[in-house]
Amino acid sequence: MLVLELDKASPANVAYSALKGEISCSEDFLNDNKIFPYHKEIKKKLLINDNENRRINGVWDYSDIDNFNTDQMFAGHLTYKILSSDAKSILPYLFSDFDVNFSKNLRKNDVIIAGDNFGCGSSREHPV
Hints:
Layout: H1 11-20, H2 26-30, E1 55-56, E2 59-62, H3 70-73, H4 87-90, H5 100-105, E3 111-114
Parallel strand pairs: 2-3
Antiparallel strand pairs: 1-2
């Protein structure tokens, strides 16, 4: 009987093992340069300087920011202090730990251009 270690039984490993017909590690598949010759560089957390303007003509350009999570959008400690249905109370805190200019310069109908995996993290609905 074959047993997969719990730390090895990720969904990716299970799916790859099923496709291959034997217990396998998905990292072998992902690291195969013949299949995936391009490896995207993972960007570190980026903070916006206080004097940096990311809003131009109603468009907020965060396209260089990947994996921007809901904790950066709205601090977790405020989740139970402010109702998710109270947009006016949320606004002063929106993105406050990331870009101090966002909430004070945000206007109706503004658009956000974001990098990969924008809004990842918890299921916190406040930022939406």
